[in-house]
Design a protein that fits this description.
The complex is a heterodimer of chains A (about 400) and B (about 200). Chain A has about 400 residues and is an alpha+beta fold. Chain A is about 45% helix and about 15% strand. The N terminus of chain A is likely disordered. The C terminus of chain B is likely disordered. The chains are: A alpha+beta (about 400), B alpha+beta (about 200). The structure holds iron/sulfur cluster (2 copies).
Chain lengths: ~400, ~200
């Protein structure tokens, strides 16, 4: 009874709380910012009627590190390692996104080998990122799933193998700084592709196990089906991209629709799902895990020969000057469209650099899809959107 | 689907994993195999005659995105070993507490003086220990194994000399879509504005 009542109220999330029924005696719950389920530091004010969320007001900015300003203060040569820390679950794609913008304005041709390696990195990063998401999402859903942290541990174990592979390339497990303007800084070491295939075999074999814990588990279904339904029109309106959009039935993927790197040379099967609920988002990411494994397998043996850098290696701090102009470059990261808007003025520093993080747009759906759900749904919905606060706040 | 069978299914998965060999090791008794390019804290190297390699050119100080390197360059003076005049650094401080391990300082060093090391024992009990003074950097160079990367190697990997290309670096065929900016000539692409030393 109560639930249906609240569902009707969720029409306008921008309605001031004063306009709600004063009789309702809403309870204000400050959720976060230091809450493990917020995947970083994120605060929501939840107005509760019993256990039903009536209104949700999200607050971001707790992890603001002025990255965009930093990108204007540092020279182009120095920026790449800084943006590693934006989306700290998928550093590879951050580096790629920013360098794509620099390369576009410079008119620099990235060698084919570098583009293939970048594609492989991006897909492996997608696997690692989705694995981390799966683990944390299962943990958000709580102890029902075979003891809370089980899936988390399993997913992290497999993610580790990908980080080991990246460490072999760049010497660093997480903040790689392996891209540079015009290509890559590190070539892949000998025998690397064999080890990649081994790791992928293990991960692929274990996806079935994750599914046994999640998609094939009735408890999981009951926690996720029909929870946080985001319809495709609203998703498009809010600028939501990536798996969250595809789970709402919108067939959109920049890897296929606006190919970058070497995506124009391979086919990407875009995974979509209907429903737009937490279950659909899980199905899409599980499908993407398999698809990414397929793409890496298809590419890893045929990475073309050649140089890995089409520009000159970074030597001097202000040797790279980008001619005046502006550009917007977008690429598909594990979370959606990561855009870089760059205004250059001919000097070695960007005049303005704006990063469009997919997670920020995903979070903006919270006030629309959360009301009507319970407090425990709040965690499930937040987790299923896969927001990374480092990228939201920058 | 019902709760019981699904739970048993999940339990079976858990059990199967319980009997898998662990993937973690008992650090610090066991150290996991570290890949060739593994890199942590820094070292300054001496040449074979024991002379400091660093010429105090400040390239690493300038490139550092976190500005954690502070160098006091000395003027040119005679090398005690060769007797030739060359530059030196009087003081060299690298503050690890804000270093982001980007490896750019290593990449830009023209004489391969600064390298990273393979010593995993970086954590310390005090912040002062994170400030690597010149003394400690040279000590690291003596007693810690150096990492793979140095300026020459990193540069060579990104810009393989034509001719002396390693096996996996066949000379690049010109791409149909544009001139290769890879040659040492001025990039033909007018958009690429690059400058040599200021
Ligand atoms: S590795 Fe550390 S010291 Fe070297 S340039 Fe990067 S931040 Fe500076
Ligand atoms: S370490 Fe290398 S780059 Fe830094 S001042 Fe010395 S010679 Fe120059």
């Amino acid at each position: 009874m109560l639930r249906t009542l609240q569902v009707e109220r969720r029409v306008d999330p921008h309605l001031s709380i004063d306009r709600y029924d004063p009789e309702a005696e809403l309870l204000l719950l400050h959720f976060g910012p230091q809450h493990p389920a917020t995947h970083g530091v994120f605060r929501m004010d939840l107005y509760l009627d019993g256990e039903i969320v009536v209104k949700c007001v999200p607050y971001v900015g707790y992890l603001h590190r002025a990255v965009e300003k930093l990108c204007e203060v540092l020279t182009y040569s120095q920026v790449t390692p800084i943006v590693d820390k934006n989306d700290y679950v998928s550093p590879m794609t951050n580096e790629q996104a920013i360098n794509l913008a620099f390369e576009k304005l410079l008119g620099l041709e990235v060698p084919r080998r570098a583009r293939w390696i970048r594609t492989v990195f991006a897909e492996m990063q997608r696997i690692a990122s989705h694995l981390l998401w799966l683990g944390t999402f299962a943990m958000d859903l709580g102890g029902a799933l075979g003891g809370g942290a089980t899936v988390f541990m399993h997913a992290f174990r497999e993610r580790e193998s990908i980080m080991d592979l990246f460490e072999e390339v760049s010497g660093s497990r997480f903040h790689y700084n392996t891209h540079t303007i015009g290509g890559n800084r590190h070539d892949i070491p000998a025998g690397w592709s064999g080890r990649v295939k081994q790791a992928l075999d293990v991960i692929e074999a274990r996806i079935g196990e994750y599914e046994a814990m999640t998609l094939e588990n009735r408890i999981f279904h009951e926690r996720t089906r029909g929870v946080g339904v985001l319809d495709g029109t609203l998703a498009l309106e809010l600028g939501i991209t990536g798996p969250n959009l595809r789970a709402s039935g919108v067939d959109h993927d920049l890897r296929r629709d606006a190919p970058f790197h070497a995506y124009d040379e391979i086919t990407v099967n875009v995974i979509t799902a209907e429903g737009g609920d937490c279950l659909a988002r899980t199905q899409v990411r599980m499908g993407e895990l398999r698809e990414s494994i397929r793409i890496v397998r298809a590419m890893i043996d045929s990475i073309p020969e050649g140089p890995i850098n089409g520009g000159k290696p970074i030597k001097l701090v202000n040797s790279i000057k980008i001619p005046a102009g502006q550009t917007y470059v977008a690429m598909e990261t594990p979370r959606g469209e990561l855009g870089t808007y760059l205004i250059a003025d001919g000097s070695p520093k960007a005049q303005r650099l704006k990063i469009r993080p997919p997670s920020l747009h995903a979070l903006s759906a919270m006030p629309y899809i959360l009301p009507g759900g319970t407090v425990s749904d709040a965690l499930a919905i937040l987790g299923s959107l896969d927001p990374i606060m480092g990228e939201v706040d920058r | 689907m019902n709760y019981l069978t699904d739970s048993l299914h999940a339990l079976a998965t858990s059990l199967r994993n319980a009997f898998r060999a662990p993937t973690t090791v008992e650090f610090p008794d066991v150290i996991r195999p570290r890949p060739e390019r593994y890199r942590t804290t820094f070292a300054l190297l001496n040449d074979e005659q024991g002379d400091q390699l660093c010429i105090g050119c400040l390239m690493c100080e300038r490139i550092c995105p976190s500005t954690v390197i502070a160098i006091k360059a000395a003027g040119k003076r005679e090398s005690p070993v060769t007797g030739k005049k060359r530059g030196y650094a009087d003081d060299f401080v690298l503050d690890l507490s804000a270093c982001i391990y980007c490896e750019l300082c290593v990449q830009v060093c023209p004489v391969d003086a600064i390298v990273m090391t393979r010593a995993p024992e970086v954590p310390t009990f005090s912040r002062e220990d994170l400030v690597l003074t010149m003394e400690r950097l040279y000590a690291n160079g003596v007693d810690k194994p150096r990492a793979w990367g140095d300026g020459t190697r990193l540069m060579a990997m990104q810009e393989p000399a034509p001719g002396a290309a390693p096996a996996h670096h066949a000379p690049k065929a010109p791409t149909p879509s544009g001139p290769s900016a890879h040659t040492d000539d001025k990039p033909a692409s007018s958009a690429a504005v690059r400058e040599e030393p200021q």
